[in-house]
Amino acid sequence: MAARANIKALKNAVSALKVQKDEIQSVINELTIKSPINGHIVDKVANIGEVLGAGMSVATAIDSQKLYLKMYVDEINNGKIEIGERAVIFLDAYPNKPIKARVIKIAQRAEFTPKEVEVREDRIQRVYEVDIKPVNPNPLIKFGLPGIGVISIGGRLPKSLDELPKL
Questions:
Q1: Residues 110, 81 contacting (CB under 8 angstroms)
Q2: pTM listed for this prediction
């Protein structure tokens, strides 16, 4: 009889430990910081030991799947470009490392060239915004990093910025 009582007490203890384990796991889950995106951290906002309120940012992350290069194409070449067209991106910091890309967006309406274009003659033309996105995520690409996009219009793509004509 004593053995049965011990077994029952041990089963109760095991059940209590399982409940305690579930409670501890619940607390760990609530205190674990999880990113809503699969990206990389570009800025740490909070430090270890700081008290944060609900919903406050801990870090800034970028989803590398959503990065793209916005470029402008003149009226003549716009008609030759299609969604999915092959392209490459050359970052100013890495002019000899082409990043394979594809055209993902072509604006339907022309606009005047934005102010960022430095030569006045280039700003007079009307252009179309074209977005090109890397085929694969690339750690070299960062938000706001300047670069040059080249779209293949039925031809080959350059392997270096040196292959492009000088302006």
A1: no
A2: 0.64
For residue range 12-68, list pLDDT tens digits in order: 999 999 999 999 999 999 888 888 888 778 788 888 888 888 888 888 888 878 888
- Stretch (H or E) spanning 133: strand 126-134
Burial class from Cβ neighbours inside 10 Å (0-12, 13-18, 19+) for residue 158 reads middle
pLDDT in tens, 73-128: 887 788 888 899 999 999 988 888 999 999 999 998 887 766 665 544 555 567 88
- What tokens were used for 9? 């007490």
Measured between alpha carbons, how far is 73 from 158 in angstroms, rounded to an integer?
A: 18
- So where are the chain's domains? 1-32, 34-62, 64-163
Q: What is the DSSP letter of 114?
A: P
CATH architecture observed for domain 64-163: Beta Barrel (2.40)
Residues 6+ apart with CB under 8 A from 22: none
Residue in this structure with the two tokens 């999915």, named with its chain if needed: 84
**Alpha helices in 32-151, H assignment, sequence order:** 75-78, 120-124
DSSP for 64-88 reads GGG--EEEEEEHHHHTT--TT-EEE
